[in-house]
Every structure is written in C-alpha cells, then in structure tokens.
Amino acid sequence: MNIEPILLLLIPIISNVGFFKLKLIKTLSVLSAVLTLIISIFLYFLAPIKNSFFFITKFTTFFLLVIASIYLLSTLYSMNYIKPSKIVSERLYYILLNSFASSMLFTVIMNNYGLMWVGVELTTVTSALLIIAEASETSLEATWRYIIIVSAGVTLALFSIIFIYYNYHTLTVTEILTKPENNIITKLAVALALIGFGTKAGVFPMYTWLPDAHSEAPSPISALFSGVLLPAATYVVYMVYQVNPLTNIFVIFTTLSIITASIILTYQWHIKRMFAYSTIENMNLALLGLTIGQPLGAIILLLAHAFGKAGAFYSSGIVLKVLGEKRIENIGGLHTKLKLTSVSLLLSSLAVTGTPPFATFIGEFFILQTLIQKGYIIEFILIVISLATAFISINYNVTKMIFTQRELTVSEEPKLITFISLVSSIIPLVLGILLLVILS
Prior knowledge:
Strand order of the largest sheet: 1-2
Number of strands: 2
Helix content: over 70%
Largest sheet: 2 strands, antiparallel
Strand content: under 5%
Distance between the termini: 41 Å
Number of helices: 18
Oligomer: single chain
Shape: globular
C-alpha cells in the first residue's frame, strides 16, 4: 500500500489540530498546502497507482497538481485578506479551507465511484460556510441556492451510481473501465451523471448556483471554486462518461453551456460574476475536449485556466478590498494607483479568454481542431462565435476598468496578495510560451 495518497488526504485534516490558536492554524495551513503540493509532484512521478482504494494515473496527477497549487496560493492570499465575521471566525475559516482541499483531493484519487460521490458531497459540506465568510445578506442567499441546487444535482448523481452498481455489481473504477457495456442501464447512468455531477461542473442547465457562489464568496474561495472544485467535478463526470461514452449528448450539453455563458457575459455588471460565467465556458470546453478524445488539450486548458482564473479572482479581490466597489461601471482608473493589480487583472483576463500565446489558447486550439476532425462542424462554428463573444465582453470590461480616467484615493497596494495575484496570472503565459517552444 502506497502511503503517499493517504498522507495527501490526512495532512490538510491534521493541520486543523491548531484550531485553538489562530497563528498556529495559519502556520499549519500554509505548511499543509506546501506538503500537499510536494506530495502531488511526487505522485506525478510515482503514477500509476492502482489498488483497492486508490486509482491515480498521470491524468489524475494533473488534477492533483491543480488542486494543491491553488490551495497553496489561496491559503497564502487568505493571510492578508480574510477578516473574522459574525458567522465564520478566522479559525473556522482555515478549518473549512483545509477540509475543503482534502475533500477535493479525496474525490479525484478514489478507485470507487461511490466514494467519488461521497467526495463530491463532502465538497459541498466543507465549502458552504466558506461562501458566507464575509456575512453579507446576499452571501446567505447565495449559500442557500448553492446547497439546494447542488444537493438536487448530487441526488441525481446518486441514482447514476446506483445504476452502475446494478449493472456491474461493483463500484471499483478499474474493474468497470476494463469491461464497458453498451446497454440502457449504463446509458442512464452516464446521462444522469452528466446532469448530477455536472451540476458541480457548471454544465447546462444546473449551473445557476455558480455565479452566485463565486461572486459572494471571499476571493480566495472563489479561486478555489473556479480553478479547483469545478475541475474536480469535471474529472468525476469524465470518469463516469467512460462507462458508456455518450459523445453526442455530451457535445450538445457542453455546447449549450458555452453558448449560454457567452450570451450572459454580454451584460454582466458584477466583476466577479463576469469571471464566474467565464468559468462555465472554460469548464465545458474542457469537458468537451475530454469527451471527443482530446485529453491533452483539455488538460492544458484546465491547468492554464486554474491559474488564470485564480489570478482574476485574486485581482478582483484586491479591487473590492481597496475600492469597496463591485460594479464594473463604477470601477476605473486602476492603472493610476493599482498598477500591479492592473497588470494581474489584464493578464488573467487575457489568459481565461484564450488569447495567444497563453496556454489556454493552445488547449482551445487542440480541442477545436479535434471537434472539426470528428465532424462537429455546426458545434465548432457556434463555439467559435461564443468564444469570440466572451473574449470581447470580458476584455472590454477589464480594459475599461483599468484605463478609464478616474481619480482614486488609494494609499498603496496590499503587497502580499498583489504579488500572489501577479504570479498566478503570469503562470498561464509562461506555460503557453513553453508549450509553443516544445511544439515548434
């Protein structure tokens, strides 16, 4: 039995023993995130690991690296961002943050569909209170919607798991994937998984919780939702998809999701809601890539999107913290006083909208190329139009916030969180340049 996966799950939980002292739990949380990232890197070289408990392939390790990386960045960001509220104290915040990270890691390494379902459910339990960490009235409503909609989706997903067990008399992933069966039971299981687990992945039509939760949660949690939680749910959807690939249905639903998100993006007024709808677009494009047989493009897109979107939410958090303003129309002149934040916001916006040479562009290119090769011409055209619409909508709003002339009364940028934001937004660019060098 390999001990590394066990440590991966236990370290974030063990770090919560410092709950009785704020400074101690902060220190242990950072240490936990660092160790989690180190173990994830080690597992990349150790994979594959296949036993009765864990199923970790090279494919899985990319999700582990994303989870661990954004967990570390968000933990560091939280140090200078999170303030106690009437509902969630700082100590409780870090307990929930560590538990949330552990639940996502649990979800993607289990060799059992039932335990994957448990992991997805645990992410709801551990993250719900994090949405209301800032204790506003709208955050309470967002949390309620999150719990109700996601619970309904997870219930549908449970029926998917029941159908899988009924057909195979086991829920072990490695056993089931070696003998896929094309019958009505497995088709029902996969279809229900698309809607059920797809609720957490932002798939149409069950995505409506997502913009509310993203916009009301503290920015480091928004980064975890967008860059980590949705990819973890996407991983589960894809693992169930392989039981009986219903490619055409998945293509239809992911295309509808991308189109819907791009249309809504044209009239967004809230800075964080804008990036939330962008997440729906990116996640569904990645899921589309996985289902049409382009895992490389999907992985590149997920990796670059995780850091780019984290940078976008970190930058947005600085704007909200310093200016106290969330309406895009009321934000302007950022380049005059928040120079590094402006750079981070611009770079992350270009990253998440697939601008070359960012790695997101390369991932999107591979996926769209495969879409044509598979004969989905109409879907290709609709998606390209949607991506162009999203690109224009997001970057128009961002450039307006940065370059519009407006007087700001800001003393200085918060150093640590600005640095984290900038680093996160640069990573997709560096990754894209490296990929272009490798592929040329």
